[in-house]
Amino acid sequence: MKMIKNMVNLKVNMITSEELLKYAKQFHFEVSRDEADKIAAYLRGKNFDIFDDRTRSQIVREVAKISGPKTAKELNKLFIQFTS
C-alpha cells in the first residue's frame, strides 16, 4: 500500500497543466488553461501527501484561491477518488 501512496503522491507533485486538463475532462469538471497552469505550478515540486487530510485541505483552500470554490471542490473529489 505504501508504494501505491508514493506513486499517487509523486503524480500529484509532478502534475502538468496538460495532465490536469485531461483529468478535469475525464472526471467532468471545468478548469481553464490558465487555472490549470496555476494549479499545476502550485502543486509541482511541493512534496504534498494527499493521503493526509490536513494537507489535502490546505491544497483545496489554495486551489479555491486560484480558481474558485467550485473547482476546488471538484479537485477534492478527484483527490478522494485517488486516495480511496
Explain this structure.
This protein has one domain (2-83). It is 75% helix and 0% strand. It contains 5 helices and no strands. Helix 2 (17-26) packs across helix 3, helix 3 runs antiparallel to helix 4 (53-67) and helix 4 packs antiparallel against helix 5 (69-83). It is globular. The termini are close together. GO terms for molecular function: methyltransferase activity. InterPro entries: DUF2624. Keywords: Methyltransferase, Transferase.
Q: Structural class given helices, strands, pairing? A: mainly alpha
Largest sheet: none
Q: Write down the Rg.
A: 12 Å
Number of separate strands: 0
Q: Average pLDDT, to the nearest integer? A: 91
* Beta-strand content bin: under 5%
Span of the ends, CA to CA: 11 Å
Number of helices: 5
User: Helix coverage percent of residues?
Assistant: over 70%
Overall form: globular
Question: How do the SSEs run, as a string of H and E?
Answer: HHHHH
Q: Any idea how many domains? A: 1
Low-pLDDT sequence parts: none
